[in-house]
């Protein structure tokens, strides 16, 4: 009898998970199909191969699930002093750790999200085919106007222009952002609470589509590190890049290494874009979702986001306006996604009522 009762419950959980993930799945599917067609038209069709697209995300999801399973066992077996030999104990562990609903939600996002990022990367590699770099001089002038006639890096240099500080910012900018991108996405996908979870995923996806693809093409720019090379003008960032090179000579900076690799790849097949800053857009989405989920995370995520903001300018990756646009646009997308999620949540509840009839 227990099994008969559990089956409808499991089926209902899976149906709800599919309903909840429909907007994100449709959004990604449309973007991927359109993206593949457009990129194929310019000779840059993404591979979307299983190995290139899914191996790294699969490993990261597997590590996350393994770590959280150990935590669930520690809490619900040893912490609650339940008998490890009891089937009920392990059913409880499974439901609290993953459950049928979370399993379906995770599979849907795991299939969709890497494909979205693969196509987005294809667009970024082909960016100058659609629109050659043209906006760097205007962005540099706008930065000066917004910051009292100074380039933002000049204002930051007396404070953060010290090798030890620069190295710290460099490490956070590379490894911290990678963790925010993947850990934030996986955490919200697997264990995020609705409606915050769907709001985050929609913000995440729309940000890459609108900001990281469409706006990046429309505002084609290379960034301060490459200003002199792509414009041929007097370089207002020469002093910054000279300082970073001096720090790099003492011990390699990720910023300098990655910028040279990016320039080499650009000269062969493209791949650079500055406006808007996706580092700040994605970090903003993670900060908003984290604070909505657990307010105490503000003490960790807000300072982290501030370091990424400083690093985007100090390491020569972005004009300050790139980061400001990334932050404000992500906040706007978050707000619009929230309104949509509330409307969609009413449809999910209505669909459940119909299923029960």
Poorly predicted sequence stretches spanning 5 or more consecutive residues: 1-8, 353-357
Instruction: Compute the number of helices.
Output: 15
Helical amount: over 70%
Mean pLDDT, all residues: 88
Number of strands: 0
Q: How far is the first residue's CA from the last residue's CA?
A: 22 Å
Apparent shape: globular
Kindly estimate the percentage of residues that lie in beta strands according to DSSP: under 5%
What is the domain tally? Answer: 1
Please characterize this protein's 3D structure.
It is a single chain. The chain has 357 residues and is mainly alpha-helical. It has one domain. The chain has 15 helices and no strands. It has helices at 2-41, 50-79, 87-97, 99-125, 127-130, 136-146, 152-160, 163-191, 196-218, 227-231, 238-250, 254-269, 278-293, 298-314, 320-356. The two termini are 22 Å apart.
Brief summary:
The chain has 357 residues and is an all-alpha fold. It is 81% helix and 0% strand. α8 crosses α9, α8 crosses α14 and α13 packs across α15.
